[in-house]
Amino acid sequence: MPQPMNRAERLFQLTNLLRGRRMAVTARTLAEKLGVSERTIYRDIQALELSGVPVEGEAGVGYRIRYDFELPPLMFDRHEILALILGSRMVQAWSDPELAAAASHALDKINAILPDDLKSLSEQQTFLVPNFMTSSPVPELSGTLRRAIETRQQLQLHYQRADRQTSDRTIDPLGMIYWGGKWTLIAWCHLRDGYRQFRPDRILNLTQLNSHFDTTSSHSMEHYMALVRAEYGCEDTLPP
């Protein structure tokens, strides 16, 4: 279930909905689009007016923002915009649906307040990140794994290794690494009593347990990465 947006985000969205409208938009329509009550819309309109946003209209009729009102542009240069676009496309193609949608919305917000000479960059198709996993269960599974990492929820896996041997594992999911082609889940495996890597595309079945775990200085993603760096004799890079 999507999380309700905070007030600052809602005011930003409300401003974008009202900017440049030829016809006024009713409070009811705004409330439906933002998933709040009409009373909340009235309060938000008042907050925008107090902050200097030129809202025109009135309760019962509708609202719009004067056509010549512009939000201040973000101070991004061309390389920064290209980096944000490419990063957003990577998240949309290679992460779970919830994060993919969030990346798309974030890019829409940035694009809404860019100056015209930079806005066209978001429409360029010179740097593409194709998504060939639209029919695969891995993106949805990755979302479940990500939420389990965030909430420190233990999981039960029925897992198939590269040699096609299967086993059942109870794990503490600690983090995920994208190696440039495949995601890898880093977890503490209770069967092996140590850190193990698991490929989401080799998880045959996953059960979310009611138990949770705590991270410590010797039981965490940070500790795992410190061991990897020590093994490979590097400070800031990961093994290939």
Termini separation comes to 36 Å
Quaternary structure state of the chains depicted: single chain
Supply the helix-strand structural class: alpha+beta
Radius of gyration: 23 Å
Q: Strand arrangement, largest sheet?
A: 6-5-4-3-7
What would you call the shape? elongated
- The CATH topology of the largest domain: SH3 type barrels
> How much strand content do the residues show?
15-25%
DSSP summary: helix tally: 8
Short structural summary:
The protein is α+β, with helices and mostly antiparallel strands. Helix content is 40%, strand content 21%. The longest helix has 17 residues, at 78-94.
What does this protein structure show overall?
By secondary structure, the protein is an alpha+beta fold. The chain has 3 domains: 7-65, Winged helix-like DNA-binding domain superfamily/Winged helix DNA-binding domain (Arc Repressor Mutant, subunit A, Orthogonal Bundle); 78-123; 138-232, Roll (SH3 type barrels), CATH 2.30.30. It is 40% helix and 21% strand. It has helices at 7-18, 27-34, 38-50, 78-94, 97-112, 116-119, 138-151, 221-232; strands at 55-58, 62-65, 153-160, 166-178, 183-189, 194-198, 203-212. The strands form 2 sheets. Strands 6-5-4-3-7 form a 5-stranded antiparallel sheet, covered by helices on one side. A two-stranded antiparallel sheet has the order 1-2. The two termini are 36 Å apart.
Which secondary structure elements does this structure contain, and how are they paired or packed?
Elements: H1 7-18, H2 27-34, H3 38-50, E1 55-58, E2 62-65, H4 78-94, H5 97-112, H6 116-119, H7 138-151, E3 153-160, E4 166-178, E5 183-189, E6 194-198, E7 203-212, H8 221-232
Antiparallel strand pairs: 1-2, 3-4, 3-7, 4-5, 5-6
Helix pairs in contact: 1-3, 2-3, 4-5
